[in-house]
Structure formats: structure tokens, C-alpha cells
Design goal:
Blueprint: H1 3-13, H2 17-23, E1 41-47, H3 58-64, E2 70-74, H4 82-87, H5 90-98, E3 106-111, H6 129-143, E4 147-151, E5 159-160, E6 163-164, H7 169-182, E7 186-187, H8 189-200, H9 202-205, H10 251-268
Parallel strand pairs: 1-2, 1-3, 3-4, 4-7
Antiparallel strand pairs: 5-6
Helix pairs in contact: 3-10, 6-7
């Protein structure tokens, strides 16, 4: 900087603040936003492992198919039947969540059947007990101020002589009857998923499992030795139990059937449609779901 520039700068510093302000360009005030209050909704998923995290379609549904104006809470638990989910008080927790104020609407999606089948300690009797529990879910949800939505159970992907063995159809039929009698929205996931899996065939459906056929499940890590013998060993974090089977879902299967649930919901529950992301490309003839 030469001597002249230094003198000019010094002169500017001696000017009053008001005079200096006049030399800078005036900034237009930015208008402040006053948004309208939001009217959020909520959806609660209730069911077994085919809806739950690590094995079900629920995580993909909550992550990729609801807008930020709908809270999505997955309370499904693996290994539960319609009876044991209620008896262990998981249903009580779901009802408490349904009563939380501040939401315009709260829907409860209810899917059971896999663990209600005979041969298990958690099973229910099909003719009276199973539909009785499903009706109770409907009645309890309504008393809590929520809107129940019944889902028939996701199909297994077991084939016999090139035909899908849809062994869950009797439980799906019982749910359809309850939905009709109680005037409840019905998502016939069993029929839709069975038709899709039958169309794509057994080999194509294998990609929906958690691991490929013959894959060895990862072993749980052993607790690590601590640097000092006086310290407690470090306990590893939870490890998902992965396997190849024809019931549970890996990432690709979860994405595929979450998309299916979203499509069916958009048609069956019109009030929910503006809150759902649905890609209506036809993926049911065997094409792979879009990647994340």
C-alpha cells in the first residue's frame, strides 16, 4: 500500500459511523418465515419377525416409504404369535404409543399368522382363538383412538413341484373375515406376495433371503480380553442372526415387500396416500427392486 492509500484509509476511519455507513451498500431486509403448524400423523407396526427389524419388511417401509409428516414406529417382534405378543405386554406398549397426543391420525398395522400355526408352544387355535385375538387388536386400537389396519401374513417362499406352497392361506382367510365383519381396512399381503413369488419362481425368490443358499451364518465375536486383568471383558454389540430360509427377508426382500405394502396401503387407505412414497413400477414379474 502506498502513502496515498494509507492517508485515505486513515481519513475514512476518522469519519463518523453514520457517514461510513453511507459509503456501504444497503442490504435489503430478509423477510422472516412464519410457517403454519404441521398436522403430523403416525403409523405403528405390530407383528412378528416378517415385519420386525432384521428379517421383515418393516424397516425398509419406515425408512423409504413414509414422508417426514408421518412418524413410523416398528414394534414388531420376532417369534410372537397373536397371543404371545399380547400376553407379554408388547401390545400394551403399542397402545400407549397410540395414545400419545399431538398426531392428527394414528394408524396401527397388525400382521400375525406365522407363529400362530400349530406345532409351536406359541401357536393359537385357528377356528376361534386366532380370529378372537385379531378382533381384540382391532377393538383395543379403536378404544385407544387409533385406526387399525389388518394385514394378512406375508407368504413363505416354499415351492412343491414348481408351485408355491402357501400354507398361511387359512390364517389369511381368517383375517379377511375379521376385517369384513369389523369394517377394518385390509391389506391382503398374503395374496399379493404369493402371486408375486409364484410368478417369479423359486430360484428368483431365493434372493429375498438374508443369506444365499448354503452360506455360513457369521459367528458371534467372543468377548475381547481387557488390557488389565482387573477390568471386565468388553461385551460385543448385538449381532443379527442371519440364515438362509424361505420365510425371513434380507435387504432386497425387505425392500421388495415394503414397496408392495406401500402400494397396497395407498389403495386401501386413501387418507394415508399423501404420506406415502410409492414407486408404481411393475416389479412383480421378477425384476429386481430399485437400489437404495
Amino acid at each position: 500500500m502506498n502513502r496515498t492509500s494509507i492517508m485515505i484509509a486513515a481519513a475514512l476511519l476518522t469519519l463518523p459511523v453514520a457517514a461510513r455507513a453511507q459509503t456501504a451498500p444497503a442490504l435489503a431486509p430478509v423477510p422472516r418465515e412464519f410457517p403454519r403448524e404441521i398436522a403430523p400423523s403416525k403409523i405403528i407396526l405390530v407383528g412378528d419377525s416378517t415385519t420386525a427389524v432384521v428379517g421383515g419388511w418393516g424397516p425398509s417401509f419406515c425408512a423409504y416409504h413414509v414422508t417426514s409428516f408421518m412418524a413410523c414406529l416398528n414394534l414388531a417382534r420376532g417369534g410372537r404369535s397373536s397371543r404371545t405378543y399380547m400376553q407379554e405386554r408388547s401390545w400394551e406398549l403399542a397402545l400407549n404409543e397410540a395414545r400419545v397426543p399431538g398426531y392428527q391420525r394414528t394408524w396401527v398395522l397388525i400382521q400375525f399368522g406365522h407363529n400362530d400355526q400349530p406345532g409351536k408352544t406359541r401357536s393359537t387355535e385357528l377356528a376361534q382363538e386366532f380370529p378372537g385375538y385379531i378382533r381384540r387388536y382391532v377393538d383395543d386400537a379403536r378404544r385407544a383412538g387409533a385406526i387399525p389396519v389388518l394385514l394378512t401374513p406375508l407368504t413363505r417362499r416354499t415351492f412343491r413341484d414348481a408351485r408355491l406352497d402357501n400354507d398361511l392361506e387359512p390364517w389369511a382367510a381368517a383375517i379377511r373375515t375379521v376385517a369384513k365383519e369389523a369394517d377394518v381396512p385390509l391389506i391382503d399381503l398374503n395374496a399379493a406376495s404369493a402371486a408375486a413369488v409364484q410368478t417369479m419362481g423359486e430360484r428368483a425368490a431365493e434372493r429375498f433371503a438374508q443369506l444365499p443358499p448354503g452360506a455360513v451364518p457369521p459367528a458371534a465375536p467372543a468377548p475381547t480380553a481387557s488390557p488389565s486383568a482387573t477390568e471386565v471383558n468388553v461385551i460385543p454389540t448385538a449381532l443379527p442372526k442371519l440364515a438362509f430360509d424361505r420365510t425371513h427377508l434380507g435387504v432386497e426382500g425387505a425392500d421388495y415387500f415394503a414397496e408392495m405394502v406401500a402400494e397396497l396401503l395407498a389403495d386401501a387407505v386413501p387418507d394415508m396416500r399423501p404420506l406415502l412414497f410409492v414407486d408404481r413400477l411393475d416389479k412383480r414379474a421378477g425384476a429386481a427392486p430399485s437400489g437404495r
